[in-house]
Structure formats: C-alpha cells, structure tokens
Design goal:
Elements (H helix, E strand, L loop, with lengths): L8 H24 L6 H14 L16 H7 L9 H29 L1 H12 L13 H16 L3 H12 L6 H13 L5 H23 L4 H6 L3 H7 L4 H7 L2 H20 L2 H22 L12 H17 L5 H50 L3 H4 L4 E5 L4 H8 L6 E2 L13 E6 L3 H10 L2 E8 L3 E8 L14
Parallel strand pairs: 1-2, 1-3
Antiparallel strand pairs: 3-5, 4-5
Amino acid sequence: MTAVAPRNNVGLMLRWLPLVVCGVIAALTMALAGHEPSYDPWSWLVWARQLSGTSLVSFDSMGASGWKPLPVLVQVPFNWFGPDVAPVVWVWIVRTGTFMIPVVAWRLGRIAAGYPSAVLAALATLAVPAATDAAGGLMEPLVALFLLIAVEQAVRGRSGRAWVLGLLAALGRPEVLAAVAPFGVWASVKGRLKWYWVAFGLTGTTLLWMSGDWIDRGKPFALLERADKGAEPLRIQAAAHPGLEVINNEVFLLTAFVLAAVAFIAALRWKDEVSRLLGLTVLLIGGATALATEFGYPAVPRYLWPMVPIAYALLGIGVGRLVKLVPQVWGKALATIVAGGLLVALLAPLAIKSDRAGWDWYMGRERATQDLPNVIASAGGRGWIVTCGSIVVAPSPQVTAGVYALDVQITDVARGAIYAVHSWGAPQVVFAQRKVIGELQTAVRQRGLKATRLGSSRLWVAYWVGTLKETPCRRGGLPRL
C-alpha cells in the first residue's frame, strides 16, 4: 500500500497564528479600554439591524453617513444574536485588521528585499498616524489591509485571490477602484483572469454600492446626491484647488504620495515587483481621488488614509534595501537596528500626537454612548419616548448612537445642534449632554418655548420641548427649566 503523507497541520497553524494573535490583542484592547463604534459605524449597524429583520422599524437608507456595502452585509447575521453583539463584533474585526497591517507589511518586505526590509516595513506601519481614529470601527484600516494582501497575492502569482481582495477593499472605499479596476483589466489581458470574472466583479461592486438607496427609494445614484452635504467636503470644495487641498490637508497624506512616487520610480530600477505595485496603488488611488475632487467629488482626507500604511511599508522596504548593501551579517543586523531607531525617531512623534488626540476624542464619545441607554430608561423607555414627538440628540456626533439605542430610523432623529431645536417639527424630545444644557436653555428662552425634564443620567438629560400652548408629554409633575 502507498503511504499517505500527513497534512502539514503545523504549517497551517503557523499560517493562521498571526491572525489569531492579532484577534486576541484586539479583544484585549476592547476589554481594557473602549469598544463602542463611532459615528459612521453606528449608521452601518442601524442599517444592518434593519436588513436583518430584528429591528422594530423598516429599512431606511437615508440620513447620517453614506451607505457602505461591506460593513453592512458583514454585520447583518450578527444581529440575530442580539442587538449588543454586532457592534462589538464589528469593532473587533476592524481592530484585528488594523493589527494585521504590520504583519502583512513584514511579509511584503521579506519578499521584496529580505529580512531587513521585513523588519523595517513592519516597524514603519506600526507608526502610521491617526490609526486610533479607526478604533471605533471605521472602514479604512480594513481597506488598507485588503490592498496590502492583494499585492502580496499578486506578486505570488495568485491573480484571482488578488482580484477578490481588491474588490473587498472597493466595497469599503470606492476610490480604490482606481487601482483595482486597472489590475483586473491588465490581468484579463495577460490571461491571468477570465474576462467575465472581471466584468462580474466590477458590475457586482457597482450594484452593491447602489443597492442601499436603490432598494429603499428606487434611486441608485442617491448616495452621490447626499455625499456633498457635510461641512468638511464643502470646506475642501471651497478651496482654490480642491484636489490639492484634499491631499495637502494632512502632512502624512502628502508624505505618502511623495513616498509612493519615489518608490515607484526606484522600483523600476530595482525590478522590485512588490514596491512597484505598492507605489502604483497609492499613486492611482491618490491621483484619481485628487482629480475627481478637483471636479467636484466630495472627498475628505480620511478617504485617502488607506494610502498611508502602504506608503509607510514602502518606506521601510526602501530603507531595508539600503541596509542590505552592508556586507556582513552582523553589519546588516546592526544597520537594521540603527535604521529602525531612525525610523521611530522620524515617524513616532507625529503618530503619538495624532493618536493621543484621536484616542481622547474616541474615549469621550465612548463614555457618552455607554450612558445613552441609562437616560433613555430614565425618560420612560423607547416605547413611550417615540410617542412624545420628534427626537433630537445633542451634540451631533452622538446622533447615530442614539438612533441605535432607540431602535428608530436615522431620519427620525435630528442632528443635535441646539440652534435647530424646534425648527423641524413640534413637539420634540431632546437628549442633551450636560455640557450643552446651557445652549438648550438659551434656545428655549429665545424661541418662546417651554421645556420639561423627562429624565437624566450621569452625562445626559432628556427634555420635552414644545410651545407654551402644548401640553408637556410627561409622566408626572416634573420641573421646567
């Protein structure tokens, strides 16, 4: 009989070990620090809950941030295990993906120029600025990760896997199609992908981006109609050259673009396919986004964040290639340590500054979000509140969290600028953080309204606000402001 070779279980375990370790680290950060989603992810969670059939209201794609097909579809099944599961799982997925970026950068560096480049590429991506901005579940880290793995698969000759990963990245940020679509066409022409898989992928991705408003309102292009209403896109569009403004708005975005250009040119001389593909990815995405923004596309700097880990990996690979010129093994090791120290000294201050600010901002939202269910319960609970009038949540960054906590449609809750109180329907139930109660009191007096306190928690106070002729919606003799 012919002996059957045993499966290489050790190799399989080692292949998945980095993902498991990153998942454990992500879980620890959530257990020891914050774990609540931020503004945009709460919108996706609201829509996923409605599509899962577990919400008390029907699907409504309007309001808040733009539709994102990947996070919404991923979150749908987790709602079947209860409303508290999907938010935690999504934040864990994004943080796991964020921690995986240096791992993939290591692998790309090793393919490109050996272990010095592997070490320095991983080290550089650990110092990417504004990483904690995504701690609450933003899509950009996953987009960057998918693009990095797609490049890895492409250089290994696995064009099909690279294509699928590129499409996943495009389902998180449409701008990456500027790099993904040309790769698909090129791979098809070279015979590495069947043309119908390219056509199917691009068509399916486009339809999924249109699907939210198409299903809800029968308007496939409604997302573009709503995308330019935010203050930040309007500010960028008001610049003399919006395309330059969106890249030059953050120093690390401009740095990423320059690094990619240098690395791409250098890779042509080195014949380094990894650096060439990474550099081309950044240049295509950044260039196409800047050009589109120049002609009215409502981009903001955050959309370009996926370029940054890719460019930082390129920086590490390039420095590692210089280290490789040192002849002796011990000399390479010493040069790697010195180069790593220089990279940390160069990159860490900006990363620490931006991440500290981002984390402080996130934790402030975390505390307010966790306290929302308490004020809702104190005010009488969801069933009673929705019968009292329109709902306002102040300040605005907590609107989508309030929508999820109340399980209503996003369009049922007004953005919480106090000056808008009573401007879009009466009466209203206003959930105001204690830090904006003074503004609420002023708004009530200036408009000749009356306000009745419904309940409170550590950080929030709930009021009924109406005209002097209206009867307050309250359960007892509660004091007025």
